[in-house]
Amino acid sequence: MIIRDETRGIFVLSTTETSYALGLVEGALPVHLHWGARLSSPAGLTLPDSPRRPFSVQTPVGSGEANLDGCPAEYGFAGSGDFRTPAWAAIDSMSYPILEAWHESHTVHAGKPDLAGLPSVRTASGDGAETLELVLRDGPSSLEIHLFYTVLPEFDVITRSATFVNSGREPIRLSRAASLCVDMPNRGYEMVSLCGAWGREADLIRHPLAVGAHSIGSRRGISSHHANPFLAIAESSATEHHGEIRAAALVYSGDFLAQVERSSDDQLRLLLGINPETFSWLLAPGERFTTPEAILVYTESGFNGMSQRFHAIIRERLMRSRFRDRPRPILVNNWEATHFSFTHDSLLPIVDAAAGMGIELFVLDDGWFGNRDDDRTSLGDWSVNRRKIPRGLEGLAEEVTRRGLRFGLWFEPEMVSPESELFRAHPDWCLHVPGRGRPTGRNQLVLDFSRAEVCDEIIRRLRAVLDSAPVSYVKWDMNRYLTHVASPSLPAERRQETAHRYVLGLYRVMDELTSRHPEILFAGCSGGGGRFDAGILAYMPQIWASDDTDAVARLRIQYGLSLVYPISSIEAHVTDVPNHQVGRVTPFATRGEVAISANFGFELDLARLGESERRQAAEMVAFYKEHRDLIQQGAFWRLESPFEGDGSAAAWMFTEEGGKKALVFAFQILNVANRAPRFLRLVALDPQGRYRVEGSEDEHTGAELMGRGLRLPLAAGDFAAYRCTLRAM
Length: 729
Ligand code: GLA
Known about the structure:
Blueprint: E1 2-5, E2 10-14, E3 18-25, E4 29-37, E5 58-61, E6 64-67, E7 88-91, E8 102-110, E9 130-138, E10 143-152, E11 157-166, E12 172-185, E13 190-195, E14 203-208, E15 212-217, E16 230-234, E17 245-251, E18 256-262, E19 267-274, E20 281-283, E21 288-290, E22 293-299, H1 302-318, E23 331-333, H2 335-338, H3 344-357, E24 361-364, H4 392-402, E25 406-411, E26 415-416, H5 421-425, E27 445-446, H6 452-468, E28 473-476, H7 498-516, E29 521-524, H8 534-539, E30 542-544, H9 551-561, E31 570-575, H10 588-596, E32 599-603, H11 611-633, E33 635-640, E34 649-655, E35 661-668, E36 679-680, E37 690-693, E38 699-701, H12 702-707, E39 710-711, E40 720-728
């Protein structure tokens, strides 16, 4: 619901539990008034006064004036009195700064407009979604800024984006264009983010805010393993279950900046959007530029409350794939089993073993194309290697299908190996700066996806493969950060646009391939979770979470990712020991429980498993099939964090609506001597209900399980896992 108090220039946007309010100072300057608990009316809101203070500059606003530095801006600009980091910045054709933009008009639309060329939340007719469009304008340059706010009441979510329009006669250059800017008083808040590195994605970082700017971001061309495009501020007392949190996720897969700036007056400015450091955009007369979208969530029910809102909106309104609500297949991938060395014949025993366990999909990873026997060649040459696969993909897919599994295939569409036919034919198709070197990463260069003809050719090549064999699943990998980010094909004045144009090109390719092949399940990957973001999830409803498949490392990675991303999107596989990345040996059962906790699969030579592990694997598959709907679509609750205490415990649970059934998972990383019994307090059960622990005689009331807790019969030893199914009687 959007309420407009036209006389006072106040707008209140409300979901079922949240309100977001903004107003107009002197009818001209958009200011932020509230983001928090639901307000029943705008009556209690007042526009801020921003009195003169020593050293303040009084900027004319409408018929009055304001000290902009003291005003909570709705979309802050620099250079005319607000000295904080601006949300946007632009210069005119004479390189003068465009200093201001004042309210010109506003409209409320039913539903939500699409964002040109960018993935975004879509609304359905029953959602009751409404959009406030606020148009700001700078008179001298005729730059218009359209701020879009969409309310999705049932999802308890608000989305924001901005469109810049050059309605004048001279070019304008944008150098900053954030998706979100919110100013608010600080109340001892902490900043929460997800950071890491390859193999250590999504480490949960939480820290108090000193005065100054605190940011995470990427200038690696992709959202990256190092930082996730998500930002939250939380009360310092907030837990998984209680406390106020304001959070935003950016629907974008390229360079981004997420920043919280605390002023000496104890005000906060939150900024989230494209990273201005690698961004510049020329707006010719008549042209427009649209920022990516930010998804905003406010909750008083702690981090689980935040996550559940993100999960629902991403799953139900962002993911476009037909698979978003379908049970995702249990797969086996050959990568960790074979790396590049396989043939048609050597793969079949894995498929046979998988068939015996009830696995549903076989994914052929890197090495099936060109002359690829290691990572030095052939990216770009997407035609089957007949030496390894003599009967072609069709012949292999036929064998796989005959064994009752579907067939999936790995690609790395954005890359080219210098040692490839594609590169020999088009040496200028990679990102590069003429006259300088072309350094490789993993022996590869990045194709220039800012060029339409490059994108078209890659679409053509992939489609040719996808049409040549019954492929049901595509793993879309991306194994190199972007450097030398310049496209010689762009005119000089637009060359700085390459980074964002690359992302737009990528989205076009993903959009075209996924919509032309709607019955293929596409999965994202970037050396694991190097591009685990809401932008990719719009096209590909699941992503390989990390190349680190160690069960202990995965507890942290999957816990961290679940803060924002739905469980169905987090791919997790049971792999061999000693683990390939960290050398750790964990029990087969524990590896199973960690992978079962997400989007489940295997990645090891199943044919070489001993009898007992084979049986266990088949049991895991059967269990997952039975409970897949609950795991992939149910409510997910984090209970104990591997990021807290001594980091030795982790636990979570899944609940069906109404609390009739629950799955509980608990892990003990390192054991200690003489430990007191561990009781795990559950949530979201019916307090009066009686629950039976499946497979045992134990019965408890919901109140007992949520109060005293469930006693965990964890085995002695390190890396132990416990799982149980609770059913209401
Ligand atoms: C990346 C992926 C792996 C695997 C290899 C293949 O590292 O994350 O899962 O596909 O590439 O080269």
